[in-house]
Design goal:
A two-stranded parallel ribbon has the order 1-2. It is built from 2 helices and 2 strands; from the N terminus they run H-E-H-E. The chain has helices at 17-24, 41-57; strands spanning 32-35, 63-66. 32% of the residues lie in helices and 10% in strands. The protein is α+β, with helices and mostly antiparallel strands. Helix 2 (41-57) links the parallel strand 1 and strand 2 (63-66).
Length: 78
């Protein structure tokens, strides 16, 4: 489990530190966006997989996936 403010990041070996920093800072234009609000956990998982596969096929390299849980949400995480 992670807290809402925890930072989760991953960088493959070989990715230059400057490129990674610019990506984290949003210096590259977004090419695609997926909004997962109002999706069930199963729907969100299916959509993320489909979205990323499509982006890879289309050579889309900068994407954002919008997700989150409302403060008043009382649903379990899993």
């Amino acid at each position: 489990m992670v807290k809402p403010d925890d930072i989760i990041e991953f960088k493959r070996d070989g990715v230059q530190e400057g490129v990674y920093r610019k990506l984290r800072l949003g210096k590259y234009p977004l090419q695609a966006k997926l909004d997962l609000h109002r999706r069930t956990l199963k729907e969100a998982r299916d959509e993320v997989i489909k979205f990323l596969q499509q982006c890879m096929r289309m050579d889309i390299r900068t994407v954002i996936i919008v997700h989150g849980r409302g403060e008043r949400s009382n649903h379990p995480l899993l």
